[in-house]
Amino acid sequence: MGVEIRVEGLTKSFGRQVIWQDVSLTLPAGEISVLLGPSGTGKSVFLKSLVGLLKPDRGNIWVGDRNLPYLSERELYETRKLFGVLFQDGALFGSMNLFDNIAFPLREHTNKTEAEIKRIVMEKMEMVGLIGAERKLPGEISGGMKKRAGLARALVLEPEILLVDEPDSGLDPVRTAYLNQLIVDLNAQINATFLIVTHDINTARTVPDNIGLLFRRELVMFGPREMLLSSEEPVVRQFLNARRVGPIGMSEEKDVSELEAEAKMGADPGRLPPIPPQLMPSDGRIRPSQHPPGAWLRAHGIQPPPGSFIDEMGRNWIEEWPRLVAAQGGTVGAAAGPGQVPPPGPPPQGAPPAGGPHR
Ligand SMILES: Nc1ncnc2c1ncn2[C@@H]1O[C@H](COP(=O)(O)OP(=O)(O)OP(=O)(O)O)[C@@H](O)[C@H]1O
Ligand SMILES: [Mg+2]
């Protein structure tokens, strides 16, 4: 059912360059989280720290009951087996065909027979839609196929945690949409804890259960999707709505004169756009870790922007949800879990403070 990762006060620098500091967040077991941030803010460094490839200067990374930065080589090796990782560059071996690339972790880390390996590799290749391409070399396939091959390779050891660095970079919008669907379907099937780094705003808005944003060497905010999509915090708002008005400039930070000019022009960040419904698995079943639409907003007394939770077919997912839950036996998803029920009594006042709550 996936393993929770709890990051506490994590700081990383290279020489005198601080990449980020005092990062705290919890990746809930089995849920999909997305990490956003301008280029160069240290998203890839964060992923590499989570698998123990880079050592933080300070802080804790709890993977279950093991604190990664303090493990011996041997313990670290064992803990890494919980992870499947797709790095930003895909990192397929150019001289190996796709089958051998995907089989590689099994041949390295297990004593499985070739027959077992074949069964597992073919199963994962089918999951990511690569049947028939077993004998192709990485140089002979498209960018989208490389990403999917990398994903299949990250899945062969049945990871409890899946880290994926920009699965959608370099893909066209249609392929990105398919990949997003694949990620949601995979989560429904394997139930692992997912962390996805992306620059794609549509992915960030529709795929995850949680969103985090890195900016100016800090984790500006991390929390449920609905919390960030309804946030008025300027950086969060600008980033998640892909707007020019706000604190983020072309070279990451706008300077004072740019911000003053904007203020003089009365640049208005505008109204928050509707919150889209979350992408469902393609078989229509609710993921075990999925939260009911609107639940976080209701629990915090926040009105969603008009038009929220309505899909392109005009269906309102807040209305559809009880029907879906009933159709699936009434005890599915985070819908059934404790803590998801809005608290009784009057809702708390106003939006949560910027920067929190870090779960
Ligand atoms: N091994 C390393 N040694 C020194 N500096 C590094 C190392 N790895 C990354 N950096 C620096 O850390 C910073 C963050 O890099 P990182 O690759 O994590 O950014 P990112 O947020 O993933 O960017 P992008 O969105 O472009 O992929 C950069 O300034 C980079 O040069
Ligand atoms: Mg990166």
UniProtKB/TrEMBL annotation:
SUPFAM superfamilies: P-loop containing nucleoside triphosphate hydrolases (SSF52540)
Region Disordered, residue ranges: 328-359
UniProt-listed Gene3D superfamilies: P-loop containing nucleotide triphosphate hydrolases
One term of GO molecular function: ATP binding
Keyword Nucleotide-binding: yes
InterPro entries documented for this protein: AAA+_ATPase, ABC_transporter-like_ATP-bd, ABC_transporter-like_CS, P-loop_NTPase
PROSITE patterns: ABC_TRANSPORTER_1, ABC_TRANSPORTER_2
Pfam families xref list: ABC_tran
SMART domains named in the record: AAA (SM00382)
Signal peptide interval: none
Keywords for the protein's UniProt record, in alphabetical order: ATP-binding, Nucleotide-binding, Transport
Annotated ABC transporter domain residues: 5-241
Biased composition (Pro residues): 340-359
Highest taxon of source: Bacteria
Composition skew (Low complexity), residue ranges: 328-339
Database matches in PANTHER family: INTERMEMBRANE PHOSPHOLIPID TRANSPORT SYSTEM ATP-BINDING PROTEIN MLAF, PROTEIN TRIGALACTOSYLDIACYLGLYCEROL 3, CHLOROPLASTIC
Protein name listed in UniProt: ABC transporter related protein
Annotated source species: Thermomonospora curvata (strain ATCC 19995 / DSM 43183 / JCM 3096 / KCTC 9072 / NBRC 15933 / NCIMB 10081 / Henssen B9)
